[in-house]
């Protein structure tokens, strides 16, 4: 048990010892041996229990582990999730004695022909701190989990001989204090390890400077070993260290990521370079790339895979990039650490603007702690070397990526001199890129004004006051918290980014849900905080992405895609179609425009629409082809035209035919009065609608209606009742909105029949729906009428009574049917939609199974609503809105099961289907981390009515 060798480095403030200076990651022809694969592995629960045998370990009894990987996802220890709080006591630089220690050992033979080369052992990422031993010699130690470290082994190896590498990795270290990112705590060698042979006569560090100003490029390549730069495509050949004008060159941008292959030749070898000419500038408070204002349609990306954690494969990274490009996303903030370098290669190649963020967060200390609270590490001089070194390691590694347009110091550390020192390093070393840090709230030193989760009103104020914060360009480095159902209200932000030049977009929080694939009793689900027995944790706050853990797009990504699409297609108000090009550099000539017209969801025509090339920023009005203009004149109800812009030819990121934008125009109403939906208004705020009194007899032979339910012929429609509750979304629950609704008793209302009888030719039932113990209620009058065609009409009117709550989660009716499988409807789809998440909902006719109608949010919650439904066929029952539209929800479990479920296997279908027709439902918002739901999306309690007809279909 005795520890004889020195482990004091675990709690050292320094960044490392015995490590080589950072340099650019190069694609060169130096020899290398990948050390990915099997290593011998042993996990000790604490440092004290880790045997002191790394000089000559007997690994015969050890396990085998795969590198790269996290030990918690390889069968050792357990993942743990906290957001802000540290899972250990705050007494930097100390860490708990129970500090899991992973020892990795493997051998490798240094090739005989490596004689004369420097032999370097390179780690791309080890979490959180590690020491390297080679053949019993301690080589050094390093820290900075998401940063590379290199060790010079030259003196310790002999060509042709085998060496034994032993790496001791510590779960906790002084470094953990500055790596408090909102994610799983996962340890180990999680990125590649390589053994490199560097020839002294070959470049080891290169800095490419490629700019583009006023149509002309300039190129200069600095190299630690001089050589010649050759760019065959440009006919260029010139020495390193010299600046060369490049007159005929295409610039690099996210939309047109033009790269030029180049090679740097030196005596000792070649370095392949991919050069993108581009200039980032800030002028008049606007950030430009090549002179064009950029609007960041961005996302915050953590590295995540549900089985591998942050140990991503190249395919995982490509999947992310392709999904982003196909969604029209043009920017990524690498929250909150430098990503695997291959991801940046992909961003260069496919075209994504990158905010490369340093591996730094100290959120759990508070922003500006005052004594006696401990200083935040960014204020404490003992951390300065480590923090500046972190910045240096990122900038040096990544400086040659054209995709990186902004450096970011880190996230959520408050303010301190160490940040200023980091800024100064980055600014001096690379003046070509602005530097970002959101908690420098007054922009004392940073080059960009940045906030997170600001309300639309807040963004408006910043847009209006162009001199605030030194007049710098403004971005939302985080907004649109994509936790669970949502985010809502994205269109409101987009409008502001277009209105105010300095408001240059933002980055949705975040890209992917970090749910870890787990199974219990043979049932698979995605685990979140607390599922591994953590004592302190932050539950499902780790699942707040636009993608589900398996990278399936959530409705949030579908919505975001629509909100940021590069063209806006609407009615032009003059009988034609207006198309606005929102691209930064592309015109529309790469797109084919397809028209489909439908009447009541049935296709009546299709074709292509010739559209002249529209330049970026321009709007064109296009006349409808003659056939369609006639349909428009005919004015049949629910005649819709859908215009889709598709890629004419395939690109590197999508096939020909990929849809980049679409719009719908309703042809049967004057184009000046285009509705956003099928039919009349059903706004969340106050539902109106004429009760339609069918000229019919009171419910007779065909259907029966009582307070308990109705039946249509043989079909029982059970438990028909008013419904005012939804399973709280994360955006309802976290800010306490759902608790306020519960205080008003909305989750447990009771129903009382006040009266029933025949009135004015209808069977009229009056009910009062009210919570126990409270004095308010909703009085509903249900008028059932038998209609000549055999259907049953329901005219419902609702009046709140007493001290009713100001807002409701929903106002609808719910009933039960014997279990059904399939639903067809005419309204909005194909995915779910709510009043503030309906941009992507197109009017049309859809069909889906009840299973398909459920959105599998990692923590079960309200989902699957379709706003503005005109009619639905739910199994044997047809429901038609006359004339008001309803929100449709169909599921095979109750709201209360949905509410109490912790993971998807908790939701079990029974033999009953629950159908809810909403008069209105509250919007979604993004209040789990963001502003309150805007008033306009709340459902204000007010008198309301609904008219529907039920028919059986066989
Ligand atoms: C913000 C963090 O920067 C981010 O990492 C994440 O935790 C996000 O919140 C919530 O999911 S910080 C918050 C105080 C606004």
Mind explaining what this structure looks like?
The protein has 954 residues and is mainly β. It has five domains: 8-198, Jelly Rolls, CATH 2.60.120; 206-280, Immunoglobulins (Immunoglobulin-like, Sandwich); 295-561, Glycosidases (TIM Barrel), CATH 3.20.20; 574-666, Sandwich (Immunoglobulin-like), CATH 2.60.40; 711-747 and 807-952, Distorted Sandwich (Beta-galactosidase, Chain A, domain 5), CATH 2.70.98. It is 11% helix and 36% strand. It is built from eleven helices and 62 strands. The strands form 14 sheets. Strands 44, 48, 49, 50, 51, 54, 55, 57, 58 and 62 form a ten-stranded antiparallel β-sheet that branches. An eight-stranded parallel β-sheet has the order 31-30-29-28-27-34-33-32. A seven-stranded antiparallel β-sheet has the order 1-11-10-13-7-4-5, with no helix packed on it. A hairpin with a 2-residue loop joins strand 10 and strand 11. The longest helix is centred in the middle third of the chain and has 15 residues, at 384-398. The relative contact order is 0.08. Bound molecules: 1-methylethyl 1-thio-beta-D-galactopyranoside. 1-methylethyl 1-thio-beta-D-galactopyranoside is lined by residues 83, 182, 336, 411-412, 452-453, 478, 481, 509, 541, 544, 929. Residues 83, 182, 336, 411-412, 452-453, 478, 481, 509, 541, 544, 929 line the site of 1-methylethyl 1-thio-beta-D-galactopyranoside (IPT).
SSE topology:
Layout: E1 16-17, E2 27-28, E3 31-34, E4 37-44, E5 63-67, E6 80-82, E7 101-109, E8 118-123, E9 126-127, E10 129-134, E11 137-143, E12 149-152, E13 162-170, E14 183-185, E15 188-189, E16 193-198, E17 206-213, E18 216-223, E19 228-231, E20 236-239, E21 243-246, E22 260-266, E23 269-275, E24 280-283, E25 286-289, E26 292-293, E27 296-300, H1 314-326, E28 331-333, H2 341-350, E29 353-357, H3 384-398, E30 404-408, H4 417-429, E31 435-436, E32 449-452, H5 456-464, E33 474-479, H6 490-499, E34 503-508, E35 516-520, E36 523-527, H7 555-563, E37 567-571, E38 577-581, E39 591-599, E40 602-608, E41 619-622, H8 626-634, E42 639-647, E43 659-666, E44 697-698, E45 703-705, E46 709-712, E47 715-723, H9 730-733, H10 737-743, E48 750-759, E49 762-770, E50 777-786, E51 792-801, E52 807-808, E53 810-818, E54 822-829, E55 842-849, E56 866-869, E57 871-874, E58 877-881, E59 886-891, H11 895-900, E60 912-921, E61 939-940, E62 944-952
């Amino acid at each position: 048990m005795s520890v004889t060798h020195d482990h004091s480095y675990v709690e050292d403030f320094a960044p490392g010892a015995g490590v080589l200076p950072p340099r650019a990651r190069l694609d060169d022809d130096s020899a290398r041996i990948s050390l990915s694969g099997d290593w011998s592995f042993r996990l000790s629960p604490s440092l004290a229990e880790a045997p002191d045998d790394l000089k000559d370990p007997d690994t015969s009894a050890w396990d085998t582990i795969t590198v790269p990987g996290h030990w918690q996802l390889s069968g050792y220890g357990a993942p743990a999730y906290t957001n802000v709080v540290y899972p250990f006591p705050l007494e930097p630089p100390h860490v708990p004695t129970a500090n899991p220690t992973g020892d990795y050992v493997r051998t490798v033979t240094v090739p005989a022909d490596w004689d004369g080369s420097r032999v370097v052992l390179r780690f791309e990422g080890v979490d959180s701190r590690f020491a390297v031993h080679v053949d019993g010699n301690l080589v050094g130690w390093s820290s900075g989990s998401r940063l590379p470290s290199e060790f010079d082994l030259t003196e310790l190896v002999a060509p042709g001989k085998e060496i034994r590498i032993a790496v001791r990795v510590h779960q906790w270290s002084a470094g953990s204090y500055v790596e408090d990112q909102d994610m799983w705590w996962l340890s180990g060698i999680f990125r590649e390890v390589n053994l490199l042979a560097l020839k002294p006569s070959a470049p080891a560090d290169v800095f490419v400077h490629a700019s583009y100003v006023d149509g002309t490029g300039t190129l200069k390549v600095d190299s630690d070993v001089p050589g010649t730069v050759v760019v065959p495509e440009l006919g260029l050949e010139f020495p390193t260290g010299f600046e060369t004008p490049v007159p005929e060159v295409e610039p690099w941008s996210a939309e047109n990521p033009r790269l030029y292959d180049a090679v740097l030749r030196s005596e000792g070898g070649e370095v392949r370079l991919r050069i993108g000419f581009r200039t980032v500038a800030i002028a008049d408070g606007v950030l430009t790339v090549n002179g064009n204002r950029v609007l960041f349609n961005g996302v915050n990306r953590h590295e995540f895979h549900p089985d591998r954690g942050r140990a991503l494969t190249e395919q995982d990274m490509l999947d992310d990039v392709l999904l982003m490009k196909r969604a029209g996303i043009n920017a990524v903030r690498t929250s909150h650490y430098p990503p695997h370098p291959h991801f940046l290669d992909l961003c260069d190649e496919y075209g994504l603007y990158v905010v490369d963020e340093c591996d730094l967060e100290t959120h759990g200390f508070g922003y500006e702690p005052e004594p006696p609270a401990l200083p935040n590490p960014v204020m404490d001089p003992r951390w300065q070397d480590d923090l500046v070194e972190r910045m240096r390691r990122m900038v040096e590694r990544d400086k040659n990526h054209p995709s990186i347009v902004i450096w970011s110091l880190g996230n959520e550390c408050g303010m301190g001199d160490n940040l200023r020192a980091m800024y100064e390093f980055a600014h001096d070393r690379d003046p070509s890129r602005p530097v970002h840090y959101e908690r420098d709230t007054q922009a004392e030193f940073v080059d960009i004004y940045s906030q997170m989760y600001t309300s639309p009103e807040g963004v408006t104020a910043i847009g209006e006051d162009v001199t605030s914060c030194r007049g710098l360009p403004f971005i939302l480095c985080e907004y649109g918290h994509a936790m669970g159902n949502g985010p809502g209200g994205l269109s409101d932000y987009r409008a502001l980014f277009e209105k105010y030049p300095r408001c240059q977009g933002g980055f949705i929080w975040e890209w992917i849900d970090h749910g870890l694939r787990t199974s219990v009793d043979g049932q698979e689900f995605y685990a979140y905080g607390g599922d591994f027995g953590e004592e302190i944790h932050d539950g499902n706050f780790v699942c707040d992405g636009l993608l589900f853990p398996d990278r399936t797009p959530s409705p949030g990504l579908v919505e975001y895609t629509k909100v940021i699409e590069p063209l806006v297609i609407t009615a032009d108000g003059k009988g034609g179609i207006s198309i606005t090009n929102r691209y930064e550099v592309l015109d529309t000539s790469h797109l084919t425009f397809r028209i489909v017209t439908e009447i009541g969801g049935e296709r009546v025509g299709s074709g292509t629409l010739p559209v002249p090339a529209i330049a970026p920023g321009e709007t064109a009005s296009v006349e409808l082809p003659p056939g369609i203009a006639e349909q428009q004149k005919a004015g049949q109800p629910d005649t819709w035209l859908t215009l889709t812009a598709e890629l004419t030819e395939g690109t590197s990121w999508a096939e020909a035919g990929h849809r980049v934008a679409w719009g719908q125009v309703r042809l049967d109403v004057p184009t000046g009065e285009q509705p956003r939906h099928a039919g009349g208004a059903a706004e969340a705020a106050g539902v109106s609608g004429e009760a339609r009194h069918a000229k019919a007899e009171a419910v007779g032979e065909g259907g029966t209606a009582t307070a308990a339910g109705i039946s249509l012929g043989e079909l029982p429609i059970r438990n028909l009742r008013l419904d005012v509750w939804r399973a709280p979304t994360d955006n309802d629950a976290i800010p306490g909105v759902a608790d306020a609704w519960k205080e008003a008793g909305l989750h447990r209302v009771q129903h009382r029949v006040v009266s029933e009888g025949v009135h004015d030719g209808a069977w009229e039932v009056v009910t009062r729906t009210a919570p126990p113990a409270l004095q308010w209620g909703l009085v509903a009058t249900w008028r059932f009428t038998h209609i000549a065609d055999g259907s049953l009409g329901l005219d419902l009117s609702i009046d709140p009574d007493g001290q009713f709550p100001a807002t409701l989660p929903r106002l609808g009716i719910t009933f039960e049917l014997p279990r059904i499988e399939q639903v067809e409807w005419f309204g909005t789809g194909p995915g779910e939609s709510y009043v503030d998440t309906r941009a992507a909902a197109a009017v049309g006719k859809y069909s889906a199974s009840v299973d398909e109608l459920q959105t599998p949010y990692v923590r079960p919650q309200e989902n699957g609503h379709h706003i503005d439904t005109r009619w639905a066929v739910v199994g044997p029952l047809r429901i038609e809105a006359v004339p008001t539209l309803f929100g449709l929800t169909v599921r095979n479990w109750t709201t209360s099961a949905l509410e109490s479920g912790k993971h998807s296997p908790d939701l079990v279908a029974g033999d009953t289907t629950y159908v809810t027709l909403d008069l209105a439902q509250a919007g979604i918002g993004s209040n789990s981390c963001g502003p309150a739901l805007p008033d306009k999306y709340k459902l204000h309690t007010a008198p309301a009515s609904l008219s529907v007809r039920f028919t059986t279909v066989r």
